[in-house]
Amino acid sequence: MSGQTIALVTGANKGIGYEIAAGLGALGWQIGVGARDAERRDTAVEKLRADGIDAFGVPLDVADDESVAAAAELVADRVGGLDVLVNNAAIVGGVPQTPTTVEPATVRTVVETNVIGVIRVTNAMLPMLRASASPRIVNISSSVGSFALQTTPGIDMGQVPVAYLASKTFLNALTVQYAKELADTGILVNSGCPGYTATDLNGFQGVRTASQGAAIAIHLATLPDDGPTGGFFDDAGAVPW
Ligand SMILES: NC(=O)c1ccc[n+]([C@@H]2O[C@H](COP(=O)([O-])OP(=O)(O)OC[C@H]3O[C@@H](n4cnc5c(N)ncnc54)[C@H](OP(=O)(O)O)[C@@H]3O)[C@@H](O)[C@H]2O)c1
Question: Which InterPro entries does the record match to this protein (predicted)?
C-alpha cells in the first residue's frame, strides 16, 4: 500500500454516500466508489475525478455474495489494501410499511441490503482492514433505529417504515458486536446518523443537504487511533441507543 489512505464507500453514486466520497476524497484519500449500476457508478467517478478526487469505481451490489467477493478482489488488486470502510448503502423498501401490514418479503429485502449487506461487505473487506495501520468502519445508521428515542415520551418520529427502522436497530446491534470482537485490533467501529437529509431515500423531504448528512461519516472515518469504538453518533455527539 502507498502512504495514501484508502476508503471504500458503499452506495456512493448519489445522496449521502456520494458526499462522503467527495468529503474523504478532498482529504487526499483514494476513494473506491461502490455502486451496483455501471452507468451511475461511472458518472459519479467521473464527477469526483473532475473535482480532483482520486476516485475509482468498484462494482458492488451489497446484497450479492459474488459481487461483494469480486469487489474485495478488485480493491486488493487495484490499490492493495483498505483503511476505511463506510457501509452507507441502504434501501427503504417501499411504503407504506406498518407492523401490521408490511409484507414479509419487504422485510427480507430490506434486511438483506441494510443488515446482511453490511455483514457481507465488512467480512469481505476485513482482511485488508486488519492489515491497515488505522482502520475504521463506519456504519451509516439512523436515529430512527434508536430504542431510546422510539420510547421517549414526547418524541414523535412520525410514520417511519418499520422494516427500515428495525434494520437500523439491527445494524446498531452489529456495530456494538463488531466493536467488541475487534476491540484488540485497532479497528474502530461506529454507527453514524446523518440526520434527516434531502435524498432519493425520502423523496427529498429531508431538511439537511447531502453534504451536511455526510459530515458525521467523515468525522467517524477520520477518528484518531484513541477515538471511540462501538458508539452511535450524530453531529451533536452521542445518540442514545
Ligand atoms: N436521507 C436521510 O434522511 C437519512 C437519514 C438517516 C440515515 N440515512 C442513511 O444514509 C444512507 C444513505 O442514504 P441516502 O439518504 O443517501 O439514500 P439514497 O440517495 O437513496 O442512496 C442510497 C444508496 O445506496 C445504494 N444502494 C441501495 N441498495 C444497494 C445495493 N444492494 N448495493 C449497492 N448499493 C445499494 C443506492 O444505489 P442505487 O442508486 O443503485 O439505488 C444509493 O447509492 C443510508 O444508509 C440511509 O439509511 C439517511
Answer: CBR1-like (IPR045313), NAD(P)-bd_dom_sf (IPR036291), SDR_fam (IPR002347)
State whether the beta carbon of 11 lies less than 6 angstroms from ligand 1: yes
Choice from 8, 9, 10, 14 to test ligand 1 binding pocket (greatest atom count within 8 A of CB): 14
Query: How many other CB atoms are there within 10 angstroms of residue 194's CB atom?
Result: 27
**Dihedral sign (CA 128, 131, 134, 139):** positive
**Positions marked catalytic:** 164, 168
Q: Looking up cell 422510539, which residue turns up?
A: 150
DSSP character for 240?
P
Residues 71-91 have pLDDT tens digits of 999 999 999 999 999 999 999
3-state helix, strand, coil in the chain (%, to 5): 45, 15, 40
Q: Which of 189, 190, 181 is nearest to 232 (CA)?
A: 190
CB 86 within 8 A of CB 138: yes
Closest to 181 in 3D by CA, of 141, 144, 213, 229: 229
d(CA 35, CA 39): 9
Q: What strands lie across the sheet with 188-192, from one edge to the other?
A: 54-59, 30-35, 6-10, 84-87, 136-140, 188-192, 231-234, 237-238
- C-alpha span between 177 and 18 (Å, rounded): 27
Q: CATH assignment of 6-238?
A: 3.40.50.720
Q: Determine if ligand 1 sits within 6 Å of the CB of residue 63.
A: yes
